[in-house]
From TrEMBL, chain A:
GO terms for biological process: peptide transport. SMART domains: AAA. It is found in: Cell membrane. It holds the Pfam family oligo_HPY. PANTHER family: DIPEPTIDE TRANSPORT ATP-BINDING PROTEIN DPPD, OLIGOPEPTIDE TRANSPORT ATP-BINDING PROTEIN APPD. This is Oligopeptide transport system ATP-binding protein. Residues 12-263 form the ABC transporter domain. Its main location: membrane. NCBIfam families: oligo_HPY.
UniProtKB/TrEMBL annotation, chain B:
This is Peptide/nickel transport system permease protein. Residues 109-298 form the ABC transmembrane type-1 domain. The keyword Ligase does not apply. It comes from the Bacteria. GO terms for cellular component: plasma membrane. It comes from Micromonospora matsumotoense. Residues 1-30 are annotated as: Disordered. Its main location: membrane. InterPro entries: BP-dependent_transpt_permease, MetI-like, MetI-like_sf. Keywords: Cell membrane, Membrane, Transmembrane, Transmembrane helix, Transport. The keyword Metal-binding does not apply. Belongs to the binding-protein-dependent transport system permease family.
Length: 340, 312
């Protein structure tokens, strides 16, 4: 059942995923054709601003979309050769924890407030592996030790609110990694934490990933957070992946004007006091996505074609894809404002 | 931090050692009762009172037998503490046909507690189960059951009692049934609301991402969240149910005559409030004290079971 390491097919493939929600203002598309892949042992960072569909994407993968308001209109989610989107949710639950697991953004809401943390982790061993109560507790404490919680044997008896934010996020990570999944999805794992703790958590995730050899999807809106950890990045905008490729390539030579805008808006440490270069305008409302390229109203290189033709993700260099009609020009660094 | 920690040391003012080498003020007696002890009292006093009621209800009628047809005209309307004609002491007085009130109240406790507990158990279980089901599943099940609950809430409970008593006759079981039918929507609504608020919280989702099925999520994530509010509702409802049983009995739709509940005894004393206040007042007092104790106990249990409120 377990595929050999570095199997020819990727671990997780999301292809042309379209998800819509029924809202009070009508139906809107949160995802508009999302495609990406994660190979075994690889770390993919999904970047994008709030509302770009990052969380919806991974929630669709974990079958966590609200049942009554969300619909997967189109597309496939394939895990290790199995098409999860065509199978009942039960199958995803069976794969959960042992194959794929998730770390949530807010550790306080991700833990049951009325159950001791040791118990919450031990439950997993008892239910999924049918171990004895004592053995489950022992493993839970070991799991807490592994993520660097001091005094784990004693702290396992505490409730979530008795932990600090950073320690709580470690608990959440311990829980997700308890059954050694092959794919860890981390949905903004450091957003709720302060900067020093952010670095600790990212280091922890990297160490654990290297130790277990698991693949990781790291969702974030912070370009800096992923720079040291990710192998590849996928940039999302308005419910689609607009660019994906190896991290260094995308950071050094972005092929989509949106990515380039993001890079330009990062403050440079060697030029303090410099005015930042923001991306003008606001992301489109999912109720009124513009025709053509969704980024064209804010795009400095937009031309006539961008207003009518929606660009698809295409290969612009080896392993590097972008959804822009003029990706080559953007990559070459043509002065976009002059060209427009 | 309430039990006698010397404030001066905490606030950082210089600590002057006294003769016995202890910081100044350390042996000053605490002014307020330590919170820990007050909290213990809040648990044990109501528990003690409720236990006393249970003992009185279970054993009392065995010792001081209550006979509904043993009337004695000579002893009618005696105030509390009087001697009766047979030489016995009427500790709580007698009613209008000369029956001792104490055994009557103890017998009444038995019926009232039985009806209260049985109703809460039945209505609570059914209501909570339906509420969680509705909240968790949503959709058509939710709509159907909740509209049923709305109809039930809009339907006068007395009319329902007339109906049940008319069709099934009046008995303790039928009173419990009637009261359960009137009470379950309240439990269902609270359970549903709490379930809705919990089922898509991140910790429930986190459980799902670790492979938990619906049953597991309900048992470990939803039930603990539902239990607290339901406990509070139950303590409030216990009072209502006992009073409702009294009103039904008053209208002779409830407990058959001859089995006194607190309600029937209160109703009996209604005509004699001016001349013999004890007939209606004492069982009323018994009822009030009981309901208050249950309320305090419920609050305390809720607080104790909520880890967010507990400090160690």
């Amino acid at each position: 059942m377990v595929a050999p390491p570095h199997a020819p097919h990727p671990l997780l493939t999301v292809d042309d995923l379209v998800v819509s929600f029924d809202g009070p203002l009508g139906t809107y598309r949160a995802l508009n054709g999302v495609s990406f892949q994660v190979g075994a042992g690889e770390t993919l960072a999904i970047l994008g601003e709030s509302g770009s569909g990052k969380s919806v994407t991974v929630r669709a993968v974990m079958a966590l979309l609200p049942r009554h308001s969300a619909t997967i209109e189109r597309g496939t989610i394939r895990y290790d050769g199995e098409e999860l989107s065509a199978l009942p949710v039960r199958r995803t639950r069976e794969l959960s924890a042992t194959e794929m697991a998730m770390v949530f953004q807010d550790s306080l809401t991700a833990l049951n407030p009325v159950v001791r943390v040791g118990q919450q982790i031990a439950e997993l061993f008892r239910v999924r592996q049918r171990t004895s109560r004592r053995e489950a507790w022992r493993r839970a404490v070991a799991g807490l030790e592994r993520v660097g919680i001091p005094n784990a044997a004693r702290r396992a008896h505490d409730y979530p609110h008795q932990f600090s934010g950073g320690m709580r996020q470690r608990v959440v990570i311990a829980m997700a990694l308890a059954l050694r999944p092959r794919l860890l999805i981390a949905d903004e794992p450091t957003t709720a934490l302060d900067v020093t703790v952010q670095a600790q958590i990212m280091d922890l995730l990297r160490e654990l990933r290297e130790a277990d050899g698991m693949a990781m999807i790291l969702i974030t809106h912070d370009l800096g957070v992923v720079a040291d950890v990710a192998d590849r990045v996928a940039v999302m905008y308005a419910g689609t992946v607009v660019e994906s490729g190896p991290l260094r390539t995308v950071y050094d030579a972005p092929a989509h004007p949106y990515t380039r805008g993001l890079m330009a808006s990062v403050p440079a440490p060697d030029r303090p006091g410099e005015r930042l270069t923001p991306i003008e305008g606001m992301p489109p409302s999912p109720l009124a996505t513009p025709a053509g390229c969704p980024f064209h109203p804010r795009c400095p290189v937009a031309r006539a074609a961008c207003r009518t033709d929606r660009p698809v993700l295409r290969v612009v260099a080896t392993g590097h894809e972008a959804a822009c009609h003029y990706a080559e020009e953007v990559m070459a660094g043509v002065d976009v404002r002059g060209a427009a | 931090m309430s039990d006698g920690v010397p404030g001066s040391a905490v606030l950082g003012t210089p600590v002057v050692p006294t003769g016995d080498g202890r910081p100044d003020g350390a042996d000053a007696p605490p002014v307020v009762v330590p919170r820990r002890r007050r909290r213990r009292l809040r648990l044990w006093i109501p528990l003690g009172v409720i236990a006393a009621y249970l003992v009185a209800g279970v054993i009392g009628p065995l010792i001081a037998r209550y006979d509904p047809i043993a009337t004695s005209v000579a002893d009618r309307l005696l105030p509390p503490g009087s001697r009766m004609s047979d030489g016995g002491l009427a500790l709580l007085g007698t009613d209008q046909v000369g029956r001792d009130l104490l055994p009557q109240i103890m017998q009444g406790a038995r019926i009232s507690l039985l009806v209260g507990a049985a109703t809460l158990l039945l209505a609570g279980t059914v209501g909570a189960a339906l509420g969680i089901l509705c909240g968790y599943l949503g959709g058509a099940v939710d709509a159907t059951v909740m509209r049923l609950a709305d109809i039930q809430l809009a339907f006068p409970s007395i009319l329902l009692a007339v109906f049940v008593a008319g069709v099934l006759g009046s008995s303790v079981t039928n009173v419990v049934l009637t009261l359960s039918i009137t009470t379950w929507p309240i439990f269902a609504r609270v359970a549903r609301a709490q379930t809705l608020a919990t089922r898509s919280r991140d910790f429930a989702n986190a459980a799902r991402t670790l492979g938990a099925g619906p049953w597991h999520v309900v048992r470990h994530c939803v039930l603990p969240a539902v239990a607290g509010p339901l406990l509070v509702i139950a303590t409030v409802q216990l009072g209502f149910v006992i009073v409702a049983e009294a009103s039904l009995s008053f209208l002779s739709l409830g407990i058959p005559a001859g089995t006194p509940s607190w309600g029937t005894t209160i109703a009996n004393g209604r005509d004699y409030l001016a001349s013999a206040w004890w007939i209606a007042t004492l069982p009323g007092l018994a009822l009030a004290v009981f309901v208050v104790c249950v309320g305090v106990l419920g609050d305390e249990l809720r607080d104790r079971s909520d880890p967010n409120l507990s400090t160690r």
